[in-house]
Design brief:
347 residues; Quinone Oxidoreductase, Chain A, domain 1; 2 domains; 6-stranded parallel sheet
Amino acid sequence: MSRTEKSANGMMRRAIMAAPGEIEFEELEIPEPGSDQALIKVHSCALCTWEQRMYTGDEPIYPMAGGHEVSGIVEKVGERVFNVQPGDHVTLSGLYRCHQCESCLRGYENICENMYKVRNPPGGLGEYVLRYGADCFKIADDVPFEHASLSEPLACVLRSVKQSKLQGGERVVIVGAGLMGLLHLVLAKNLGAVVFVSEPDESRQQKALEMGADLAFNPLEEDYVEKVKALTNGRGADVTYVCVAHPSTVEPAVAASANAGRVLLYSSFFPKGQKIEVDPNIFHKKEVVLTGTMSQTRGEFLEAAQLISNRTVDLEPLISATYPLDQVKEAFDEALKINTYRVVVQP
């Protein structure tokens, strides 16, 4: 029976991460949406670093129906869904929010105190997914689905840039030119910042330059603090986005900050239990701010979907490869390569 015949008979396929490096497929009934849910036919699912870590065993959560950077077309909606209708092209948020804890009630739903108490498998590596209507965001019909699937990482970076209070003309240093570093680069350039990229890999340096960086340098060959000071006429960086999970990058980023500089720790995979050493006098004498961000709010997700729909950001350079659902394992293997940005699975 073909995949089309299975769908016609109410069945769907979904990829499951069963163990490190092991992908299994299951067949199950296509679910019916509840009153406040929408059924989405998946067209693209990007492989986030989180899923990659599950695939390698660094995040051993098995079995897991992964895939949360998802876009597709609405197929059915419940009677209490008003923002989308069948036929709409959408991108989906997979973040669980309880809307009851104090963080949620204060507007910080991105750090919901109960987000990990409910297992909410995203399931984007399948032919259909269910989402609450409030987690569905319309995208323009002419936007490629693989671009729309990057709404979630773009929304997270939007929160980071907002937290930094970046202003036009300020001097920015981005530490790390992976996908998230490059998304910071795009948004910072859109705001009129001067952007320098610290990245040891030559091919990633070149990608950053192609996407608008004013300069890229290798921190393993040049002293990071001296280089940043030289690039900024001795002042230091107004904003630094640390987009790599290396604790050793934090102290130099703080030391190379300008007066009233802001250092954002974006990466979510710093090794647990490790410590950093920072001269506390910097915070008193220079009013440097060291902070970070977690995920995104629905408002930021909406903004990301609108930026993509309006073609304000060009995401094509960040799509490294696409694979069909049958080749999920090959897609993960490709995603783990050093010079890969986002690999997209298209059921």
